[in-house]
Known about the structure:
This protein is mainly beta. The chain has two domains: about 280 residues, TolB, C-terminal domain (Neuraminidase); about 120 residues, Rossmann fold. It has four helices and 31 strands. The strands form seven sheets. Strands 2, 3, 4, 5, 6 and 7 form a six-stranded mixed beta sheet that branches. It has a five-stranded antiparallel beta sheet with strand order 1-30-29-28-27, with no helix packed on it. Strands 10-9-8-31 form a four-stranded antiparallel beta sheet, with no helix packed on it.
Amino acid sequence: MTKQWLKIIASLAVILPWQAQAELVIEITGGTEAALPIAVVPFGNTGPTAQIDISEIITNDLASSGRFDPLSKRDLISDPHEKSEINFKDWRLLRSEGLLVGKVSTEDGELHKVQFQLFDVYKSQQLAGMRYQVPAGGLRRLAHKISDQVYEALTGEVGVFSTRLAFITEVKGADGNKRYALQVSDADGANPRTVLQSKQPILSPSWSPDGERLSYVSFENGKTEIFVQEMRSGRRNSVAAFKGINSAPSWSPDGTKLAITLSKAGNPEIYILELASGKLSRVTHNSQAIDTEAVWMPNGNEILFTSDRGGRPQIYKVSADGGRAQRVTFEGSYNSSPDISPDGRTLTMVHGFKGKFYIAVQDLQTGTLQVLTETGRDESPSFAPNGRTILYATEQRGKALLAAVSVNGGNHRRFGESGTDVREPAWSPLRK
């Protein structure tokens, strides 16, 4: 199941079957991190009822993070929609530390006015609150935005509910032919949209730092080829179609370059491609090794990558200008598929042990490694833009699906959908 080393390079087309146009549903499968009790009261409605239940989306967002334990609707003692309707003494009896209330009003079912207020129950103080006016099509995104504001007000950290996930799906038609799709969904797996469909495999989606473009690998022209596609217009360009392998694109922090893997000179090496000029510069030089899966450090000056130059796949670091590479991982005989936390302090990877593959994290300062998952069939880790959670691909009962785990292993969740297999996830940057 895992993205094994030689399979990526020798046969970039080895992929499990997936299903297109699938809505991914979050299922919490592990413990929480000292979850904070919070009450999310169903928002009041005036006028035609909106098709999107804002308070339900917020409740699910907060619960999925593992940081909050929302009260069930049957435990809510009253139905306030603004501060004047709240008896804080009653809510303290439920030991709910936060209380979220709100209203939705519309005259025509198209334009909606939404307001929310978040309160500290014990201090009877408002912590956050806003009024918005959005079209019906913007209610889902607004719900995620409110979730982010609640999350930040109560934890002091940036929320990621308004971000997006990119992933690859495959569907096998009645004629036996496969069709591949690059899809993008909301961070909760809902609202999936197809970016690209193809009869040939699609691999390695990667978000630009501004979230406006996706790079990926496509086989549509009978060979590996790297494309960059604009999210809004759908316009796309082939940026690398050299002889041999063109794979594993990774955006520089400033969005002007891609680190890519090319075998144009023989064996796979890391190159940097300047998108505006097309200038190509080679970073690694090792004729006996496979160098691939580059990812930029947040400082933009260094690159992490996977190499078997020591005999087995391990993760190395090298200057973006080239030079001598330094080995980063030492625990175990197999470490690959690096991704780096936004603060540059934590590395996540696929850690192999006795033929099984797990998601692990390593503190880059101390070198301490912690294995976070247990299935032994995990791959493709991708950090959330706040560094709190890692998205990855796994397998359960023969089906490929996405899952997420907190960086300390305290919270686990799956993105499942009946009859669907999904792989190659990439978490978007924060939305502006």
